[in-house]
Amino acid sequence: MGQQIMFFEKSKSDFSFSNVDATASQGADYADFALNRSNESAWITSGSVDADNTTWEVEMTDQKDVSEIILIKHNFKNFTIKYWNGSAYVDFSPAINVTNNTAETNHYSVTQVATNNIRITITGTQVVNSDKYLFQFICSNLIGQLNAWPIIKPVLSRNRKKNKMLSGKTSIRESIGAVKIDLSIKILSNNADLGIIEDLYYSNDGFLVWLCGGSEAQFANERKGYRLEDIYLVKCSDEWQPEYAEGIYTNGMKIQIALEEVVD
Fold first, then answer.
1. Whether residue 133 is found in the same domain as residue 49
2. pLDDT, tens digit, for every residue of 170-179?
3. What is the DSSP string of 16-71?
4. Taking 60 as the threshold, does the pLDDT of residue 144 lie above it?
5. At 101, which CATH number?
6. Residue range of the domain that includes 36
C-alpha cells in the first residue's frame, strides 16, 4: 500500500546552522556538499576503492537530539553509521550496520540520542570499487506521519520570467526555483493527525516534508516531487483555520494546508 506523508524537524546537520561541518577521509573538499539540501551536488571521492573503508563524518559542535537518519542518493552497499557518545563512536539502537544494500535512499529510525558527531564508514559500494557519493545526509526527529491520505497539489516552480521581445517572440528565463505544496482533506477526525498539523502551524522553524513517506509503492509511476529523493524544507504559508465541517462541533475538521519551500 505504501506510506503516508511524513514530517521531520529541520535536519540537525543542515548547512545553515553555525558550527556544523563535514569531513571525510577521502574527497574532503566536497564533504559539506551532503549538507546543502541539494540533489544537484554531492560529496564524492576520487580514486577510492572498497578496501579504503572510507569515512564521512558530520561535526555539529553542540549536542543535538537525533532519532532519524536519512541518506539520499548514494551508492553504499556495505556501511555502518555510528554516533559519538562523548568518548567513542558507538552504535545506535538498533545498530545501523548494513550489508548488501541496493537502495539509493535509506531511512533509519533509532532510539533518540544526544550527540554532536555522526560517522558513516563505507566498506563496499554497489558497483565494486566505485567512488563513493552521497547527495544528502539528514539527521533529525520525526514530527509525525499522517494516517490520512490528503489530496496533494504540488507546484515545482522554475521561477520563470517572461519578457516580450521587439520581434514579438517571448524570452523565458528559468532558475532553480522552489516548491509549493497544497494539502487538503475534506473532513479529518483523526486526533493524532490534527495534532501533527497544529504542530506544523505553530513551529517557528522550517520542517521537512516527505510526500512519499519513505515508499513509492502508492504511486502509479515515479514522478518528481513524489520520489524517495524528494524531501523539502518548508513552512506553512497560510494561517491555521480549525473549522469544524458544516459548523457541527462533533464533526471532523476541513483541512487546507499551504506549504512553501524556505531558505531556513
1. yes
2. 766 666 678 9
3. TSTT-EEEESSSGGGGGGGGSS-SS--EE-SS--GGG-EEEEEEEEEEEEEEEEEE
4. yes
5. 2.60.120.260
6. 9-141
* pLDDT of 1 above 70: no
Bridge partners of residue 144, in order along the sequence: 7
What is the value of pTM for the model shown? 0.93
Residues 171, 194, single domain; the answer is yes
Indicate if 95 and 111 belong to the same structural domain.
yes
By residue count, the chain amounts to 264
Q: Which residue in the block uniquely carries the three cell numbers 531558505?
A: 263
Cell numbers at 39, concatenated: 540533489
pLDDT tens by residue, 232-247? 999 999 999 999 999 9
Check whether residue 160 and residue 249 sit in a common domain.
yes
Burial class (CB in 10 A: 0-12, 13-18, 19+), 64: buried
Whether 4 is in a domain gets the answer: no
